[in-house]
Amino acid sequence: MRFFAFLATFFFSLFISGLVSGNVINTSSITLHTDDHNLTSRINQPHSPFSASVDTAQLLVHAIGYDKPILEVSLKRSFQQIDNGESVCVINKIKSAEREKKYTFSLPLNFFQTQQLYQLASLPPLAPELLNENGEVVSIHKALNAFNASAIVLPETYSYGERVDNDLSNIDESQVIALSNPTFFSRFIKIISAGKADFALIFPASLNRSFGNTQPVEMRSYAIANNPKFVSGHVICGKTPEALAFIEKVNAAIKNIYTKPIFIEVHTKYLPVNSKLIIERAIQQQVANIL
């Protein structure tokens, strides 16, 4: 009897192992979501490439043979569907401690220099007491407090990482202009140009992609103290056996993508010259640690 019990336990463990590794579970029902309109409008289209986030997503869908559309869905709704056990994963999202409690993350699919605080140059610069010895802003909400007649433009559903998210949560709501994620990059500069806001939190690569050296308004920028210099985007899924199998499939594809020269190329081609070597070295170091 003990022998049969042992066999049952052994084969059950093999079965579960197969589920988690993706050998048994069919992951074809997984649907990828994003709240990035630029991605959904350009993925699998002839006018790609467009940005590192779009181009790396393109590399991934080719590598895993994903032949369905990536659906444009609000992040709140995507997370609700994942929480309900639906076969949904979200592409190109940043890790946070809160998210890691509930969801499963892939390996990094892309890397970016972290966001900076941009301020209209028509305002006085931030006072020295708001900066550290490296000229980095110590607290975003304190900077806004010092300009209490000003507002900051922020995407309404977005995680910048735990350190910045906590900082932003302390900003007076009357000083925040929240834009939907899909329209953020197309609208923030119009709002600032119209004088409705004086601050924005933006990734340098996104600003360079949108305007290059021809920004319609002059802005100064500040790095954020005690914040990582680089951030990575991931595929986020739930923790069902199907989701775990899909993440394993994605991770295998990402590791293969890391080995190809195009992975570095799609990151550096959209950056100003003075940032290319910095991000290239950072990516090489991160990838070496993973592989």
Overview of this protein structure:
- Helix content is 45%, strand content 16%.
- Helix 3 crosses helix 10 and helix 3 (52-64) packs antiparallel against helix 11.
- The relative contact order is 0.19.
- By secondary structure, it is α/β, with parallel strands linked by helices.
- The longest helix has 20 residues, at 2-21.
- It is built from twelve helices and eleven strands.
Contiguous runs where pLDDT drops below 50 for at least 5 residues: 1-22
In which range does the helix fraction lie? 40-55%
Structural class: alpha/beta
Query: Number of DSSP strands?
Result: 11
What is the general shape? globular
For the sheet with most strands, the description reads: 6 strands, mixed
Number of helices: 12
Protein name: Solute-binding protein family 3/N-terminal domain-containing protein
Organism: Alteromonas stellipolaris
Question: TL;DR of this structure?
Answer:
This is Solute-binding protein family 3/N-terminal domain-containing protein. The chain has 291 residues and is α/β, with parallel strands linked by helices.
Keywords, separated by commas or semicolons:
six-stranded mixed sheet; 12 helices; alpha/beta; Solute-binding protein family 3/N-terminal domain-containing protein; about 290 residues; five-stranded mixed sheet
